[in-house]
Amino acid sequence: MKKIASVLIGTVLMSGCSMSSTWDNPIPKDEFLVVAHRGASTYEPENTLPAFKLAENLDADYIELDIQLTKDGELVVMHDKDVKRTTESEGKIQQATVAELKQLTADEKKGGEKADHTLPEEAYKVPTLKEVIEAVGERVHFIIELKNTKEYIGIEAKLVEFMEEHALIGPDQNGMPKVIVHSFNKRALKQIHKLAPNIPLLQLISFDEGEEAEVDEKEVQDIQTYAKGIGVTYEALTPAFVNTMHGKNLAVFAYTVNDETAALRLQAMGVNGIHTDQPDLLKEEG
């Protein structure tokens, strides 16, 4: 896990670090996890194998990725349900076979000293979930986002089956969950929980600009029935909110953090992890 230089912002935020003496959660309470959002997506095209391999090399604790379902029932990795934004083509993923998607490459090539400029165009093909797991699954774990579940009937069962086949359910040798699943879609998360209660789930919640994070007690109690934590717009987080969620045995992840000062402030609050496009945002001390 990341050992962050203790350049934290005084003690004014430290009141957010206290939590319940009993932590009944597979997500550790005493680690600050760095999650590579769509891979190292500042340096390489998002949700591509180069982005994931670079995130691994930069010692990300988890890689976050998004899955979609093809016409022929394959799980592929892409954020949008349409290929237009990230490839040179257009059209919905659910209307294409995996073979057709394999003809596409990421349209946006990124520069910078951390990008591998020697890679051929073939490296930037749309990856399947299986290809990602095989490429980087030995050293790094995953947070998988379920998207467009109303359009992809049965994607929850498809994902659970995949995770079972690849032994991705449960902890690693250090007790860390191999895979966490998150989504804004509560129904989809509840379906995953019904199919495989041992998969840790995070309920994603967004807040408007200037709004402080707040979840009423009834909603919290509902989340506790299926999830192990929440993912929250980082600007909305406060020490009091993080402390309250921890007191409910709910982990708190912040997204998407690309500012070092903000990351340190969130660490001081006691959040369990941050999603960032720059997994090297916080350097190890020494």
Automatic annotation (TrEMBL):
One Pfam family recorded for the sequence: GDPD
Keywords assigned: Signal
Q: Does the keyword Signal apply?
A: yes
Chain ranges of the GP-PDE domain: 32-286
Origin, by domain of life?
Bacteria
- The secretion signal range is 1-20
| Protein name as annotated | Glycerophosphodiester phosphodiesterase family protein
Organism the protein comes from: Sporosarcina saromensis
